[in-house]
Amino acid sequence: EPEVTQTPSHQVTQMGQEVILRCVPISNHLYFYWYRQILGQKVEFLVSFYNNEISEKSEIFDDQFSVERPDGSNFTLKIRSTKLEDSAMYFCASRREGDEQFFGPGTRLTVL
Amino acid sequence: GENVEQHPSTLSVQEGDSAVIKCTYSDSASNYFPWYKQELGKRPQLIIDIRSNVGEKKDQRIAVTLNKTAKHFSLHITETQPEDSAVYFCAPKTGGSYIPTFGRGTSLIVHP
């Protein structure tokens, strides 16, 4: 069964550095999402992406964040200048049509 | 935006007992009501969902019931097993958007 994949599984970075988190959605899916989950807390929506543009974003998704679909398979989240409070698990998700979203295994980001 | 509350935050049961987790939401336009299971360090996985035109749905030991008038839906797990131990999130979605709002999660512990 096809799955969403994410790389790396764990990323450690220094405060102020840029990071790029990568996702490969399920191949015939059309809608893509990024979520974050701070340790022990709930999953929070960041951004949704469809037809090569952002369709919705939350208050968390400020100017430090950007998303891109550089080719037909990858979907990336960039954080330009990381802060300590960006430390979290970042999940990518995708769906084709309908409501069900399929989540990737996550990237644990640690900002030192 | 949608206000989502989950109760209880922690639920401890003996193997074989039943477990019930309740999710209340605020937006009467919500039309999709999923439950996710998240094991430690893993991705959220959809275990059951229900749509606003159905009151109850069952899948083996798992069931979801919906009360649209009272704006709540519940997850029911019968004959619990140790492998049911995880954090369970509800994530209702409002009509016109595909962005779910996650509850804070319920940690279910099933003692052998």
Name its key features.
heterodimer; A: 112 residues; 7-stranded mixed beta sheet; 0% helix; B: 112 residues; mainly beta; 5-stranded antiparallel beta sheet
Task: Write up what this structure looks like.
The complex is a heterodimer of chains A (112) and B (112). Chain A is mostly beta strands. Chain A is built from no helices and eleven strands. In chain A, a hairpin with a 6-residue loop joins β7 and β8 (75-79). Chain A is globular. The model of chain A has no long low-confidence stretch (mean pLDDT 94). In chain B, strands 2, 4, 5, 9, 10 and 11 form a six-stranded mixed beta sheet that branches. The interface between A and B is medium-sized, with 19 and 21 residues.
Number of helices of chain A: 0
Beta strand count of chain A: 11
Rg calc of chain A = 13 Å
Any idea what the shape of chain A is? Answer: globular
Protein chain pair with the most extensive contact, residues per chain: A-B, 19 and 21 residues
Average predicted confidence as pLDDT of chain B: 93
**Which regions of chain B have little confidence, pLDDT < 50, spanning 5+ residues?**
none
Identify the overall geometry of chain B.
Answer: globular
Described by strand count, sense and barrel closure, the largest sheet of chain A is:
7 strands, mixed
Give the helix/strand class of chain B. Answer: mainly beta
